[in-house]
Automatic annotation (TrEMBL):
Residues 328-501 form the Helicase C-terminal domain. It is an enzyme of class 3 (hydrolase). Residues 103-303 form the Helicase ATP-binding domain. Residues 135-160 have a biased composition (Acidic residues). This is RNA helicase. Residues 135-168 are annotated as: Disordered. One of its GO terms (cellular component) is catalytic step 2 spliceosome. GO terms for molecular function: ATP binding; hydrolase activity; RNA binding; RNA helicase activity. One of its GO terms (biological process) is RNA splicing.
Amino acid sequence: KANGQAGQNFEQRKWEDEVIHTALPHFGSLDKEAKSNQPKYDYILDEEIQFVQQLTIPGVNELLQYKEKSKINEHEDENKRKHRSLQESRKTLPIYRFREDLMNAIRDHQVLIIEGETGSGKTTQLTQYLYEEGYCEPDTENVEEEEEEEEEEEDYDDDDNIKLPNGKKKKEKKMMMIGCTQPRRVAAMSVAARVAEEMNVKLGREVGYAIRFEDCSSERTIIKYMTDGMLLREFLSEPDLASYSVLIVDEAHERTLHTDILFGLVKDIARFRPKLKLLISSATLDAEKFSQFFDDAPIFRIPGRRFPVDIYYTKAPEADYIDAAVVTVLQIHVTQPLGDVLVFLTGQEEIETANEMLLERTRRLGTKIKELIILPIYSTLPSDMQIRIFEPAPLGARKVILATNIAETSLTIDGIHYVIDPGFCKQKTYNARNGMEALTITPISKASANQRAGRAGRVAPGKCFRLYTSWAYQHELDDNSIPEIQRTNLGNVVLLLKSLGINDLVNFDYMDPPPMETLRLAFEQLYALGALNHKVELTKLGRRMAEFPLDPMLSKTILASETYKCSAEILTIVSMLSVNNSIFFRPKDKTLLADTARQGFFTPGGDHLTLLNVYNQWKDTNYSTQWCYENFIQFRSMNRARQVRDQLEALMERVEIEIQSNPADTIGIRKAICSGFFYHTAKFSKNGMYKTVRHQQSVLIHPNSCLFDQIPRYVIYFELVLTTKEYMRQVIEIENEWLRETAPHFYKTKKLDDDNKVKKMPKVLGKIKAELERNYS
Ligand code: CDP
Ligand code: MG
């Protein structure tokens, strides 16, 4: 409500006049007439800030080093004191007052929808309350039943842990888990870390987390945070999720694809596991919808602690919202009382740009301004850097956090008084007609805008600066975002559901069904990959593909490596592709050197082979940091690729593929890639342009590719990126003949000479289409 009122008052507020103008006296008087038509951020022009001084803002690094040092000197008492103060602060969270009512409600109902403002304590406290309430105690009544099950399993599942002769005892003692899903990796990790801290246990033991390619949990884990995608995969190994006594589907309002699929699955298991508790927790707004879906489950509302937030709009649309955001940060910094600033940007690149701009401008301002600590946060930021955003700003300093959407509801950062909202986020969009997936910068919804504004009012009255006009807010923003299931490729999920034995995907219990075209395309693609047969049943290949937490095209590539006896190489390539585009380091002041270093790795055949080359050279140095540094390679990314590779290698046993190395056979390696990525074939047409084989779309080889000036006739690309033009990123050269060999389901003729050579899908798929149409009408 506070938002609404502030919004209505907007016309009287005139952001630039009242707030900025009067508050910038020492920047010289501004010519009101001349400036009045310009966006407000022209006020801090470089010429106006000529008192350039020495850089006095201590770097965040020094600051943290200092903190690190002082920590070492703390003794145990400090630890205890800290724990006590953490326990005290738990009691100040809004959810605390409702603990008893909440626990009663959970006791009385199997499914409960919990709605509460971000920061009320849902994610960090619910799990602990439930644990303290005894929900992790072993389920003694069911022990016998479980034993039987275990014995059954023993017959054919002998790759598990060593069985104690006294397996029964062990089973009895096994604690139940409380699982809590998060749509975002960063949230899962940071929340788990926080809860471990509050419970004074080591992260990964009693409290753990699991995200793709990283499992930080153990036998002892009783509170487990994980991404929604991970829980989805757990259904594969434990279809009834018997290890869990409580499942919390958190951040339900985000409506990610995986969360939406989980809704259907957990609703189903709750029916035959009456003791399982199911909590659906969401920030705001959608509670009724969730309740309806879960057979009118009761809604528990936790009243938020929220201070009014004044909303300011710009008078005219901003041409460059990053620049506008940066200037607004500085304006706040020089004119507004202390309090941290949160800026919403769409991704890593924008965040890095804004970070540089801020550093540059604060440097120029020197000691004229107070200390400004700039902290980025995005999902691929290394976790030790992520933790930093939670550290309070030193006395007299101000933190500015440059965040992606992640700070909208998934993470609560205390001390934010000011929010800057450019009104955009990066969203996946999917064109079901041509199967093209793209990340595009899209305007946010009204619901998101209000969530963002709300971040400013958690600790005190706050201010939100929207870098768009009030008119745009009212007329251009949708009320709610479109759920991901309706704008993404479903190949992966269809494969997973099929392997869970869910065959009728048309009548699956969706909260909002996916578009028919998207489902059909997923079937078609899985058929072409050989994961489904002509009766649309899962094939053996499909079952093996489902073992990998990867896009079906990548899983297929891995499985095809068996045929070409190059699994070691393919694993490396797939791992390198999964850390995507962050391998090469290109500092602004050394672009020439960096480019030369990168070109030094170029390998005939294409970028996949180049990536393999980088990895193998790094491996030969025994994974040296120094080598990375010297060769302009990002060590962290390489390390991550290595981690991913280890995980994938472990999965190879499950699909019984031997690790074979055949580095010299670059044809075999490329054929394996071809087996997974034949959909992504493009043929040279003219003037450096390519045409995709499937949709005759004009595309170009990305300038960073090692094939950029070679112009091979046929290429396969890993992905398309749309910048100024549509580019193919990570490209290999292939031979025409390989397509027929590697994708017999897909390519009709031996050679791709004419324009129309893609096979028509078999009749069965036509039938699916008919069925889909019937069901959707
Ligand atoms: O889930 P919800 O948004 O309701 O709140 P939460 O994530 O449980 O956060 C509750 C409080 O825990 C926040 O206000 C923070 O003070 C604190 N917290 C933290 O300090 N560090 C984290 N990584 C997560 C939460
Ligand atoms: Mg939360």
